[in-house]
Amino acid sequence: MNSRLIGWTGAAALVGVALLGYVAGNQGVSISSVATTPAHAQSADDGVANLKSQSRAFVQIANRVLPSVVSITSSKLIRPASGDGNPHSFGDDLMRRFFEDNMPEEFNQQGSGSGVIMNSDGYILTNNHVVANADELDVTLYDGRTATAKLIGRDEESDVAVIKIDLDDLSPAKFGDSDKLEVGEWVLAAGNPFQLTSSITSGIVSAKGRSRIGLANYEDFIQTDAAINPGNSGGALVNLDAEVIGINTAIATRSGGYQGIGFAIPINMASDLAQDLISDGKVTRGFLGVTIRDLDEVMAEYYGLHEPQGSLVQGVEPGGPADRSGLEQGDVITSVNGHEIKDSDDLKMRVARLRPGTDVDVEVMRDKRHKSVSVQLGEKNANATASNETTLGKESSYFDKLGLEVEDLSRAAYEEYEIDRDVEGVLVTDVKALSPAGKANFRSGDVIIKVDDDWIEGRSQLEKVLNQKDSGDPVLFLVVRAKQELFLAARMP
After folding, report:
1. Within 13 Å of residue 232, how many CA atoms lie on the same side as its CB?
2. Which of 3, 129, 178, 198 is catalytic?
3. Among this protein's residues, is 387 annotated catalytic?
4. Segment of 6-15, 160-169, 245-254, 482-491 carrying the highest mean pLDDT
5. What is the pLDDT of residues 422-464, one digit of tens each?
6. What Cα–Cα distance (Å) separates residue 248 from each residue in 9, 95, 299, 353, 445?
7. How sure is the predictor about 57, in pLDDT bands with cuts at 50, 70 and 90?
8. Are 195 and 216 in contact (CB under 8 A)?
9. b/e sequence 43-65, b meaning 16+ C-beta within 10 Å
10. Which residue has the higher pLDDT, 32 or 363?
């Protein structure tokens, strides 16, 4: 299992501040016969004392959080000869060549990650990718005790999972309020990188509300530079009060290791999802029943908005919650229950965190006038899930899984991207960097003209073709880029 995570160290910066203070303290010092501590010496002592105080604070935080963080080892039995049903496994021929025709009948594949103890009942919060497809899960506590864990539930769309162990005298973590987190705050990351148990690193909150990373369908990540590496997935990101404010999930990296950009799921979101998993074994999300997109500056001007903020309704699912409540194609949703909507991802997250059956007040711009609409949310079920809700409905599910935003070719698109008029296909308008499409080197402006053996004439046909693919299937795309045709391959997630 691939755990991808983050990092930072602050000692050098702090020492730099202390040294600057020391140099400043030496300026203007005169000789005196009075037997007192020299000003520069006192300044240096104060700097060291400040560093020691901050160091001691980190020690205290580590002592409070580490007993709540566990190591998780996952095991899966692989049977190459008979096939394990895993579409991501190596083929038999490749495996036989690797083992020089002495391929074992079966072998044990192991992965590792971290988790956070939620309560004294033994529930542990972690990432879905730490536990997914495992045959056995073993947990090691900070005090060295071990136990086999039971999977309670997992949510692939948010990368959250809950497991449970039956042990006494546990040390549950204290959860904070991630909504109150501010950019620039000091944070510490706790986990088990590279199976080095009970590791602590420090850094700051670099950003909030990161989305379109391509890691999950529902993304609202905290970005941090606290050092996280493989094995930290599922571990705790904590504030200076030793409160868990995030679940470490992934890193942006070219080397596979720490490069200063990591992502954590906000604890408010993760704990809400965990409660659903504990009570129902699944996550239940609100469903609006619309397809949506972000506004650009021209659209905002057309609708009389001062800035491109809100979410444009591209389509309304017939008979769905939005349709029954009177939302219309062309409406711009500007707020939900009084919360301003920044973009389509913001709308998607706010709706998904509400329960089905909830009545919400939706403010829209229609015909350049404000209008209020009351909508009773439906339930986002398995058949209507996959969408990242640049669609809050079903239409763009496979595009979003791949990490693509696409649209039919228009006259403006032919001119903007200098596409030959005889080219037919579907225009790629956006690509998520870490998604399957991003890894396959798709770019904005590409025109998809063929998928496997099917020539593509429009968006609906492309969706139909992708809808026939199974998770794990390799798909070959023929695209036109800068008037040149090239093949790109991606695996269906």
Report:
1. 31
2. 129
3. no
4. 160-169
5. 899 999 988 887 788 888 899 989 999 999 888 998 888 888 8
6. 17, 33, 37, 20, 34
7. confident
8. no
9. bbeebeeeeeebeeeeeebbebb
10. 363
Residues 6+ apart with CB under 8 A from 191: 5, 69, 113, 114, 199, 228, 231, 232, 233, 234, 235, 236, 248
Measure the CA dihedral 197/202/204/210, to 10°. Answer: -20
Domain with CATH 2.40.10.120 in the chain: 1-282
Burial class (CB in 10 A: 0-12, 13-18, 19+), 13: exposed
Give me the sign of the Cα torsion angle 131, 134, 135, 138: negative
Instruction: Name the residue type at position 17.
Output: V
Can you tell me the distance from the alpha carbon of 165 to that of 149, in angstroms, rounded to the nearest whole number?
Answer: 5
Top-confidence range, 23-27, 132-136, 211-215, 258-262: 132-136
Looking at every residue in the chain, the average pLDDT score rounds to 81
Encode pLDDT of 287-318 as tens digits.
Answer: 999 988 888 887 888 888 889 999 999 888 88
Which residue in 236, 233, 253 sits closest to 244, CA to CA?
236
Which residue in 159, 220, 346, 400 is the catalytic one? 159
C-alpha to C-alpha distance for 168 and 380, rounded to whole angstroms: 37
The correct answer on CATH 3.40.50.410 for the domain covering 1-282 is no
Question: 76 pLDDT exceeds 50?
Answer: yes
- As a whole number of Å, the CA-based R_g of the chain is 26
Confidence (pLDDT) at 174: 97
Spatial distance between the Cα atoms of 312 and 291, rounded to a whole number of angstroms: 8
The segment(s) of the chain belonging to CATH 2.30.42.10 are 285-384, 397-491
Tokens representing 491 are 């695996």
> Cα–Cα distance between 7 and 476 in angstroms, integer?
36
Q: Which of 233, 271, 325, 387 is catalytic?
A: 233
Average pLDDT over residues 374-391: 59
**Closest C-alpha among 186, 274, 176 to residue 234:** 274
Amino acid at 115: G
Task: Give catalytic status of residue 129 as yes or no.
Answer: yes
Tell me, yes or no, if 296 is annotated catalytic: no
CATH of 397-491, one of 2.30.42.10, 3.40.50.150, 3.90.1640.10, 2.60.20.10: 2.30.42.10
pLDDT for 120 equals: 95
